[in-house]
Design a protein that fits this description.
mainly alpha
Length: about 325
Amino acid sequence: MTDDRRKFGYVARFAFGIAVCVLGSLLGAQTAQAWGCKGHQTVALIAEKHLTPEARQMVQKLLEENPIDPKLKRWCGNATTDLLVDASTWPDDVRNERKNGPWHYIDIPRGKHKGDLAEYCGAEGCVARAIEEQRAILKDKSADSLKRAEAIRYLTHFVGDLHQPLHAITNADNGGNCVAVKYLHHEPLPNLLHPEREDYSPNLHQIWDTEIIERDMEISNALRYADELDEKFHPENAAWEATGIHVDNWAWESHERAETAVYDAFPEKISIEPDMKLKSCAENNHMGKRMFEKHLAVGDAYQTKAAKAAQTSLAEAGVRLAMILNDAAKAAN
């Protein structure tokens, strides 16, 4: 699946007319971000609560001594002085330049169950492999300090990506980008700049990236939301930590959550499609148009259930990111 799958939601989001579509095309130059800015920042903030002193020192030292290029255009801004929070969104800022879009997701087809992930991780990589590769770099105290700092930034982002359910599944729909949905009172609109692509906004991937959790956050900012989630899931933390670091298992958990909380939660059945990679939503027998014609709607009931699943995913991601950073600090000493 091409990296274009992460661009569709932004291109169409403001497609109310030609002038607004031009703005949408500019937004489309940026790739969609799992959980959006606030979601990734929430994962980093939860992780910080679970760092050992050694890990906190390692993270601070590496990020301080190897700062992000101040000339880099930051999609989420760089106003925060919290270096790990700032790190959480950096990989999306450089993904086009570094051409590593496939590192952000893994295309496990719907209907698949536990097993070796290698067949779903292509030659260009995937999020599960990227996490393991960056872990190895960070744990190697003889590695270049810039590479280790970047490993922290990648890990902070990729662990969040892995726990966004639509980054661990595909239904020949570009990770849900080809599934048009009415979100509350927002009707799906076509991409007027490129109608031949048959992509719409809102779509399933887009609402799981941002709308569901930002609506759940209400007036909270990421800092307050992280406090709320860490307190809510405190009873589960010990169990999550006890299972250890098993990235493949986390991928399968996220995949199963996508099956149940994303696709099966619709009253209308969404059939399992043939396993294929799309360059646009017009492929697979006009996948985008077929999904649009199902008139899928996300109301309050879906929002409530989805928010609960997203909360669990964010809390798990934060705790597990801390586990990875703690383990790396121990290994590097």
